[in-house]
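HOLO CASE FILE
Compound: calcium ion
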Amino acid sequence: MGKKVFNGKCYFEPEVETQAALASVGIYTFRYYPQDKIIMSSDYAVVYFGGEKFITDLKNNVYVNMALEKGKIQSLFEKIENGSQKASTKFFTKEKGRAYKITVSVLEKDDLGKPVMAAGVIESIDKDIRQKEMIYALGSNFNSIYYIDVDNDKVYVYTVNSAVESMIGEKLRSIPGYEDLMADYVKKTVIADDRETMLYETSLDNLRRQFQNKNAYQYDYRIFRDGKIKHCRAKFVNVSKKGCLHAMIAGFSDVSSEKERELERMAYVDRVTGGPNYESFKKKLRDMPSSGYMISMDVHSFKIINSICGVTKGDETLKETWKCIEKVLYDGDIAGHINADRFVIFSNTFDESKVCSKLNILKDDLRVLSENLKIPSVIPYFGITKWNPGKKVEEAYSEANFAKNRIKDRKDVDSQFYSEADTKKMLEEKAMEDAFLDDLQKGRFEVWYQPKYSPEDEKLIGAEGLIRWRLKDGSLMSPAKFIPLFERDGLIRILDEYVFRDVCNKQMEWKRKGLGVIPVSINLSRASLYFESVVKQYHSIASEIGVDTELVPIEITESAAIDNENIKALADRFHSNGFPLMVDDFGAGYSSLATLNMKCFDTLKIDKSLIDYIGDFSGEKLLEHTIALAKDLGLNVTAEGVETEEQVDFLRKINCDSIQGYYYSKPLPEQEFKKLL
Ligand code: C2E
Ligand code: CA
Ligand code: CA
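Model generated. Tokens follow.
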């Protein structure tokens, strides 16, 4: 044992031979005297690491200063002082970027058990070990790994992807500062769209912010390589004390296949229900070897749930609805969520009764669900069609939908099988859609006019523009036949605007010819109302033609007004653009007094179904009071579908403002109508 004197005291160190043997395998030793707060380095350690033989400043000595993470070594000494038998830590050196492990173990204690002398060993750790540690820190296999000494702005390469090496090989050898290297990498590999954010995300400024409360941060970006876009991930692990950034490990990796799997998975997962979406359903059904029934499902007035209970509750309802559907799926059955309140189910059986009983169970479950969620009843209705392997999924789905739409407005049936007659009807509808634009351009859509009269003096006080379709054989098709179709497929928007424009043009023409000027209302379907731009659009058409908007009142059916959450704002916009508004078909279907009190409308058009009450005592009372109430609320009242003198007399008696009906006139072609002006 070597003996050395320092400050008049004797200190021991291992024999020179032992020191030499250890140093030859990269291990250096020192002694530590906690009570005297002295470190005595071995001669080999002094030569290798520098510094003094005796060290008295435990906070600031060659070993502590060598480490990037100084605190680690300081706390090592503290641990021994505080009674630990042994303590060790790994650290990186600033100079060479190498990793070492330092271990201190107590060899001698005094009578009180306090440490007197400890042996210290410093060994460089093999590169592989460091790499493993880094990979471990990064959490998965990264192609390129760097150790970044932030304080000294140095980058140390541990492993590097060959592609990166070939790209920035020169730079790698000279090891530039971190942000320079990053800028170079980003410029040469990252796709243009991601460059700016990548630079920001990986900047030291941002990383410092990110490391405030966590020690790892990752950012995904895209690169362009071998003619393809690849998804990459950069991950940074802070190896400094929490909250500061002195050194970090950075890993870069190609995560394309992982990303692709994720994107693929996302493409088949429904956002709302978390179950399969239509794409997923289609894919599965295409691979289905057996025949069965495809069911298209919809929920009656789902919008009401959304508008009364809020969209969050609506989404929850859909999620729970999906669970109910899942519960009735048996062997070989599949299902998916299409959108909104629409679902699709494939039932792996050709037994109609089994399908029906499945749907009955589902219906019952949904009723229970509505009770549990305390929402208006979720009442489903179904369209059903046969499906055989090889049949187009989309075709089957549109058949099922077609059947379903036939019972859309019915409360007495909740399921409908697709039939041969449906095929015929579907083909007809397809032909109508195909002919629409061409016929519109060729002027085959004609606006007819039905006059409105004042019952008091029997004078013409207005009219309604109604569309007709002139077929190639010269006959006319009634709007009842094509309007519902065009409302479903959205073509109605084009048609409504066409009618509006035509009426505006006619108003101008009649005025120029010196004919009488009366308001001519037009119909705006609910589908047209979904577009906020509709008011602006109609206003600009009217002003382009030069017609006062007062002369083209707009009719909106009562049910469309109720369904539209923005009806008030929309009505305000129509009004501020000068358009009078009429509630159409009041009293047909679900009517509500709330409509009267909406304060959105100027005129109430009472539907034929209420007019037909005339002659019936209580019916007449109802009409009388409805009209009185409407007038009290400042509304004008028009009666529609008035066919008899008795009806006219009654309406006159109860102060109805205007009458439209066959009694006075059927809708007339323009040539005839203008004779009345
Ligand atoms: P609506 O808006 O309620 O139009 C009144 C309908 O009642 C018209 O049928 C009219 O001919 C009919 N009618 C009028 N008086 C009588 C009567 O005394 N007795 C009977 N039985 N019927 C009478 P039309 O022209 O067949 O139109 C049917 C529906 O098609 C319209 O109902 C309206 O909802 C829709 N429609 C017509 N033209 C357009 C349009 O340009 N755009 C939109 N969105 N819908 C339109
Ligand atoms: Ca109307
Ligand atoms: Ca009407």
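CASE NOTES: Residues 128-260 form a domain with the Beta-Lactamase fold (CATH 3.30.450.20). Residues 206 and 540 are 50 Å apart (CA to CA).
CLOSED: yes
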